[in-house]
Write a structure and sequence with these properties.
This protein is an alpha/beta fold and 268 residues long. It has one domain: Rossmann fold (3-Layer(aba) Sandwich). Helix content is 32%, strand content 13%. It contains 10 helices and 8 strands. Helix 5 packs antiparallel against helix 8. The radius of gyration is 18 Å and the shape is globular. The N and C termini lie far apart (45 Å). Bound molecules: S-adenosylmethionine (SAM).
Amino acid sequence: MPIETVPPSARPPAASDGFFAPFRGGVRHLRFLPLLATAREAQSYFEIGTSKGNSVAGIDCAAVCVDPSFRVEQNVIGRKPYLLAFQMTSDDFFAQYRLSDLLPKPGRLDLAFLDGMHHFEFLLRDFMNVEKYCDERTIVCLHDCLPIHPHAARRLDRRKAVRQETTRPVDPEARGWTGDVWKVLRILQQYRPDLRITVFDCPPSSLVVITQCDASNRVLEGAFDEAVARWDKADERPGWFDDLHDSVRLVSSRANMEPKAIRALLGL
Ligand SMILES: C[S@@+](CC[C@H](N)C(=O)[O-])C[C@H]1O[C@@H](n2cnc3c(N)ncnc32)[C@H](O)[C@@H]1O
């Protein structure tokens, strides 16, 4: 197993209430996603990573969900005209289906939430695959891209390891696990300056909101191998955690809950 290092310069750990201070005042993503849908007047929603259905449950428009292991035990249909569930990995989904065929006519994607496999190369592929169905007004959200502590950003999800191996409570250092999807934010900042990236302070680890997508853009496809090689071991470099947080200007979700404010922020 690779040795995972934590830079000594890392910022202070989560505040005592479990939220890293910058996220304390924010609105949770489960509440903020429906606000984005309203602001965009979304007719179509696509989700990678559904689990119990908590995120899709708050959405009212037609929805397509992908997860290799659904755990839904609640009414997730609500007021939606339809909901399609694909029990498979997102890579398999994109290999087998054309998303535009599954969306209400004219097959345009209005809102997407990417919250599947939390290893960065998977999320990067998810974004590349989804962007093919986006236009400049599509809103694409990425979850968990600003970990509250370097421990949370390890590739290995120690919450599960602890639960499986012992009956002890979850290791506090393993709380708020995000995986290393933060690298996707850095890669997009580096390779796709044309995207409009807004990072909301939704606890516990932000909501990255992307607009100005371009379905014809192939920069990431061309740069994928290089980007993955360059960022693979980036968490072994001292200072990565501070650099990540310094690269972002967090936007208050609570101060921007009105549709008009959201539209202005996202350039819609
Ligand atoms: C954090 S949960 C999603 C939570 C949900 N979006 C919410 O906000 O309540 C992540 C989900 O991603 C799913 N997942 C794991 N690997 C995946 C993959 N390769 N493709 C799609 N989904 C995946 C897992 O089965 C899990 O249900």
